[in-house]
Design a protein that fits this description.
Elements: E1 2-7, H1 13-24, E2 28-30, H2 31-41, H3 44-53, H4 61-72, E3 81-84, H5 90-98, E4 105-110, H6 113-120, E5 123-125, E6 131-133, H7 160-174, H8 176-183, E7 187-191, H9 196-209
Helix pairs in contact: 1-9, 2-3, 4-5
This protein binds adenosine-5'-diphosphate and zinc ion.
Zinc ion is lined by residues 126, 128, 130, 145, 147-148, 150.
């Protein structure tokens, strides 16, 4: 299954991407996570990305398209993948299309803006790609990743000021993708729930039922 996840920052894409990845045995590819790991390692990519990420803007299309192409053409993605955070602009969607990889479905997780801002404050991340929330998805041991035992960190761009500009970026640059993929007959919409396991269940059912066109 080749799947794309859409949704505002903090809608729960990353959490659902990891769960789908485990259930289906396919890799979850998060451009945000790739960029954060590059920033933490201080690589050239990280240094370039930092200025954009920390202001809540998008990293230029050619950079992320280059990263994604390398992943999607690797052996690891032969049996499918979940894209979390890519595409984020129409230009990225067009570039993905040009790669000639067939997409089976695009799942969008809808959460109202008011809820997003308050959710962000409890988020915790691990370098391995796992993410947690102090209230909604706490790790077994505070501050430590369940999956790999590393120390969790708080993202610099989860500060309230940056969250507002990320939301604005989302509405302006990413939300048009919903219409774009609806037009392609690939869209599936799920309403993000208060409890993670409820969203997980809705996502599972939605993926079984398929795209809007088939219903
Ligand atoms: P969230 O969905 O919570 O906003 P992500 O981890 O997906 O977070 O992304 C964090 C940041 O990384 C974005 O605000 C943006 O600056 C950058 N980024 C991630 N994916 C892309 C992309 N496909 N194109 C451009 N920038 C990206
Ligand atoms: Zn971890």
């Amino acid at each position: 299954m080749n799947l794309i996840l859409l949704g505002a920052p903090g809608a729960g894409k990353g959490t659902q991407a990891e769960q789908i990845s485990e259930r289906e045995g396919i890799p979850a590819i998060s451009t945000g996570q790739i960029l954060r790991n590059a920033m933490r390692s201080g690589s050239e990519l990280g240094l370039t990305a930092k200025q954009y990420v920390e202001s809540g803007a998008l990293v230029p299309d050619d950079i992320v398209i280059g990263i994604i192409r390398e992943y999607l053409e690797s052996d690891e993605c032969r049996h499918g993948f979940v894209l979390d955070g890519f595409p984020r602009t129409i230009a990225q969607a067009e570039a993905l299309k040009r790669l000639g990889i067939k997409i089976d479905a695009v799942l969008t997780i809808e959460v109202p803006d008011e809820k997003i801002v308050s959710r962000m404050s409890g988020r915790r991340f691990c370098e391995c790609g796992a993410s947690y929330h102090t209230d909604f998805l706490p790790p077994k041991v505070e501050g430590i990743c369940d999956r790999c035992g590393k120390e969790l960190y708080i993202r610099d761009d989860d500060k309230p000021e940056t969250v507002l500009s990320r939301l604005e970026t989302y509405h302006r640059q990413t939300e048009p993708l919903i219409g774009y993929y609806r037009g392609e007959g690939l869209l599936i919409t799920v309403e993000g729930q208060e409890r993670v396991e409820d969203t997980t269940e809705l996502v599972r059912q939605a993926l079984m039922n398929g795209t809007e066109n088939k219903q």
